[in-house]
Amino acid sequence: MRIAELKRESESHVAQAAALLAQAFPHSYADCAREEVEACLEEGKIALVALDGDAVIGFVGAMPQYGLTGWELHPLVVEEARRARGVGRALCAGLERRLRQKGCLTVYLGTDDEFGKTSLADADLFEDTFGKIEHIRNVRGHPYGFYQKIGYKIVGVIPDANGLGKPDIIMAKSLARGE
Ligand SMILES: CC(C)(COP(=O)(O)OP(=O)(O)OC[C@H]1O[C@@H](n2cnc3c(N)ncnc32)[C@H](O)[C@@H]1OP(=O)(O)O)[C@@H](O)C(=O)NCCC(=O)NCCS
């Protein structure tokens, strides 16, 4: 497996990355996965793929949001059959290496809980916000657990972002401060 920059002219890789997104997030990308991948290829952004031979088995994008010091990681996907083998970790490590070179201090992301996968779902997160974050439980394999494993911290939530009781969980990692 190797991590490489996704190039607009690699038509097959762009199509495969879009297919991975559509499979993983049918509720979001069933009919616009291609546009999402193309948006990640715009000037100034970063798009990486994990390749096994010529097969795209993972995809990650990132865009600058606060000059070059704060970048948003979005989206991230690993082919279902290849999960839990370090592909997501390798993609994020490749991304972080490139972000450091660009002067990024903080990389952040929002990871939605639309399907009741954490204890933050179906709760009023305007009440005791930080207590609920502190005691978060991963009920059904929500990806926040993955991001914690690779060094991200939960730094906030957007209550009801996706509907009542369906928050976005905001996570961030420092590329400038010590581990
Ligand atoms: C989240 C995702 C990208 C992780 O990729 P992956 O290749 O399976 O992850 P890795 O194998 O690199 O995992 C790294 C570590 O995180 C752990 N991990 C992975 N997914 C996890 C989860 N959902 N909850 C808790 N821990 C998790 C692994 O066990 C591993 O731990 P270890 O280092 O102790 O062995 C992948 O599961 C995926 O594509 N999910 C669907 C799309 C998605 O949810 N994207 C993120 C949206 S914000």
Task: Give an overview of the whole structure.
The structure is a single chain. This protein is of the alpha+beta class and 179 residues long. The protein folds into 2 domains: 1-86, 3-Layer(aba) Sandwich (Aminopeptidase), CATH 3.40.630; 105-179, Gcn5-related N-acetyltransferase (GNAT) (Aminopeptidase, 3-Layer(aba) Sandwich), CATH 3.40.630.30. Helix content is 30%, strand content 29%. The chain has 6 helices and 7 strands. It has a 7-stranded mixed beta sheet with strand order 1-2-3-4-5-7-6. Strand 3 and strand 4 form a beta hairpin. The longest helix has 15 residues, at 87-101. The model has no long low-confidence stretch (mean pLDDT 97). Coenzyme A is lined by residues 24, 76-78, 83-89, 111, 138, 141-143, 145-146, 149.
The value of Rg in angstroms is: 16 Å
Q: Give the cofactors and ligands.
A: coenzyme A
Low-confidence stretches: none
Tally of distinct domains: 2
The SSE string, one letter per element, is EHHHEEEHEHHEE
> Largest beta sheet: what is the strand line-up?
1-2-3-4-5-7-6
Helix content: 25-40%
Number of strands: 7
CATH-derived architecture of the largest domain: 3-Layer(aba) Sandwich
